[in-house]
């Protein structure tokens, strides 16, 4: 079973961009003044769509009875804790000192999608980021080891982080992408489709996203301690390739990228522009407990140099804004942790800033302005009625 877990992880990472490993080193002339951080939740149980592809549904239902469908598993909780440890090491006093050891509401803002697995991931990560100091210990038992930290979540139907499920325009673009891609990107996998239909009862030509759904099912099974089905073992390499292509459909066109990541980018730019203008801002660590599609969308609109493999459970991507102590100039650095607790964070590069670890903020603005999408425009474009 472990060998297939290794293969699945390898397929998820295969083809990753070249990047420089980074620790928590602080460059003397560069002060971190803003970090915009988005993580994928920890390991979860299968969701309903994945379960529908399994020929071991009863066994999976029994294994997931405690956590429920798409629930955070104990392994996922440990992964979430590793996310928090990484945040503490990088942004706490051991690293860039962006946040204090004490939980201070003016230093951090946390947003989660309205899904149990992302909300639980945020809660556990914050337990690792803020083990209570004496001043904030509120009880002789639990209060000595746990500090409650609030987050916000908005309804799924109104959340720009859930663009792929609530935006009518994005759904229309995805329908076109599916139709076109089955005769283009997925043509090399024609030989798999009849066999997969016989095994799962589903027609992958009608929805090529099923390749990723099936791959996610296998990852969930291994995470639950099950071996993958015998029929899947010889197909795993090709299935992994097809799953990655399915994931890439979310970013197939310029407009899809803009809908998916434009609001996040716009929020980062607004804060960074305020800092550039000398304005005083609070909550300089902005955290988003979300999904693989959110990491991918922000990387796309930021024009990060990457082939965009499927982010693993516990992946963390950051846009970090630095200010030169000697010149006052601002720069942006993309940092990627492939999987908290299992890998080392890496400095990536932007297209147009390939030779610079610290990309000029003005250059970054110019290169990415085409993707900016104010939140109100997102609601209008997606035909979402909201009072947010």
Automatic annotation (TrEMBL):
Stored PROSITE patterns: HIS_ACID_PHOSPHAT_1
Signal peptide (from-to): 1-19
Cross-referenced SUPFAM superfamilies: Phosphoglycerate mutase-like
Catalytic class of the enzyme: hydrolase
Keywords for this protein: Disulfide bond, Glycoprotein, Hydrolase, Signal
Gene Ontology MF term list: acid phosphatase activity
InterPro entries the UniProt entry points to: Acid_Pase_AS, His_Pase_clade-2, His_PPase_superfam, Histidine_acid_phosphatase
Family annotation (Pfam families): His_Phos_2 (PF00328)
Reactions mediated catalytically: a phosphate monoester + H2O = an alcohol + phosphate
CDD domains attached to this UniProt entry: HP_HAP_like
Enzyme Commission no: 3.1.3.2
Keyword DNA damage: no
Family per record: Belongs to the histidine acid phosphatase family.
Name of the protein this chain belongs to: acid phosphatase
Organism of this sequence: Diatraea saccharalis
Biological classification of the source: Eukaryota, Metazoa, Ecdysozoa, Arthropoda, Hexapoda
């Amino acid at each position: 079973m472990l060998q297939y877990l290794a293969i699945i992880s390898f397929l998820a990472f295969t083809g990753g961009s070249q990047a420089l490993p980074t620790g928590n080193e602080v460059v003397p002339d560069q002060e971190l003044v803003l970090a915009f951080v988005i993580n994928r939740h920890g390991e979860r149980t299968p969701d309903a769509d994945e379960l529908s592809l399994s020929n071991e549904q009863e066994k999976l239902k029994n294994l997931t009875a405690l956590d429920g469908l798409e629930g955070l598993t104990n392994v996922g909780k440990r992964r979430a804790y590793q996310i928090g440890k990484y945040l503490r090491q990088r942004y706490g006093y051991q690293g860039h000192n962006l946040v204090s050891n004490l939980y201070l509401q003016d230093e951090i803002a946390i947003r989660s999608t309205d899904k149990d697995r992302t909300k639980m991931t945020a809660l556990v990560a914050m337990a690792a980021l803020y083990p209570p100091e004496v001043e904030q210990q509120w009880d002789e038992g639990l209060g000595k080891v746990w500090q409650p930290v609030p987050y916000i979540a908005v309804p799924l139907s109104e959340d720009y982080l859930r663009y792929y499920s609530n935006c009518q325009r994005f759904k229309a673009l995805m329908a076109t992408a599916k139709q076109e891609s089955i005769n283009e990107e997925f043509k090399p996998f024609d030989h798999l489709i009849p066999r997969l239909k016989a095994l799962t009862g589903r027609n992958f030509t009608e929805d090529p996203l099923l390749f990723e759904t099936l791959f996610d099912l296998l990852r969930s099974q291994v995470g639950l301690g099950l071996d993958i089905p015998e029929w899947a073992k010889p197909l795993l390499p090709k299935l992994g390739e097809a799953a990655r292509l399915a994931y890439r459909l979310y970013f197939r066109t310029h407009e899809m990228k803009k809908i998916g990541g434009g609001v996040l980018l716009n929020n980062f730019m607004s804060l960074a522009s305020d800092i550039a203008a000398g304005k005083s801002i609070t909550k300089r660590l902005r955290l988003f407990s979300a999904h693989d599609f959110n990491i991918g969308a922000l990387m796309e609109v930021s024009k990060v140099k990457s082939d965009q493999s499927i982010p693993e459970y516990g992946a963390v991507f950051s846009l970090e804004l630095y200010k030169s102590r000697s010149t006052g100039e601002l720069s942006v650095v993309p940092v990627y942790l492939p999987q908290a607790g299992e890998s080392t964070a890496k400095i990536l590069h932007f297209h147009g800033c390939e030779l610079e670890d610290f990309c000029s903020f003005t250059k970054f603005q110019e290169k990415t302005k085409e993707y900016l999408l104010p939140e109100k425009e997102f609601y209008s474009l997606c035909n979402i009625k909201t009072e947010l």
